[in-house]
Amino acid sequence: LLAPQAPTSVSGLIRWINRPDCGFLHGLLFTDGSAFEAGIPELAACGWSIAMTDSAGDFIAAAYGPVPRGLAPFQSSRDGEDYALRMLAFCALPPVTVGIDCLGTLSCLKRGKSYAVKASNCRAHLWGHFFATFDTEDVTGFKVKAHASHADVDSGATLAWMKAGSDHADKYAKEGALEARAPEKLRLEIAAVKVLPRRRPSS
User: Omega into 41 within 30° of 0, i.e. cis?
Assistant: First the structure.
């Protein structure tokens, strides 16, 4: 069984929610990546998102979509995280401040071009476009807790506005991944094949 390739080109697809009048997201942003069936190469599908909020974390606008398989063949959630930063070049007007829940993605941003585009980074091609577009002071990143709960806010592990912004980004990253997800019938068929026990060849 062969899963169909995601119906997107290498240039990618951008879905907009409440696109600002200026055409670009700006100010306080949150990025995220999400993936379905990440452990099954034939089915893996990931998405990305950038959510724009006010200082209280209330939703203003968002851009999101599936991650093109040609740029991220493994279709992991980390691919979606890094791809979201790449898409800032198409969707955001600097300077921006970005909440990121993936430490690896945040490290690439903070440690700069020499770290992010080194040959050992399998996502260097995504960061090459980012650093070709932005200057150092254009994008400031900060860490947010992934999938924070209200208990995390109550305990002080995160702040309410950070949780709200991260939740918005998480919602739309999942929406992006859903657009590239294989039909349920195909997912069930491939999953069934994957779990079949290996049989010794008959003599």
Answer: no
Can you say whether residue 72 is alpha, beta or left, with left for phi > 0 and alpha for psi between -120 and 50 degrees? Answer: beta
Cα distance between residue 79 and residue 59, in whole Å: 24
Give the integer Cα–Cα distance in Å for 45 and 35: 6
44 within 8 A of 98, measured Cβ to Cβ: no
Q: What is the pLDDT along the chain (203 residues), one digit of tens a residue?
A: 343 444 444 446 899 999 999 999 999 999 999 999 887 888 899 999 999 999 999 999 999 999 999 999 999 999 999 999 999 999 999 999 999 999 999 999 999 999 999 999 999 999 999 999 999 899 999 999 999 999 999 999 999 999 999 999 999 999 999 998 888 888 788 777 766 454 454 43
Q: How far apart are CA 142 and CA 154, in angstroms?
A: 20
% helix / strand / coil in the chain, to the nearest 5? 40, 25, 40
Q: Which of 75, 107, 98 is nearest to 25 (CA)?
A: 98
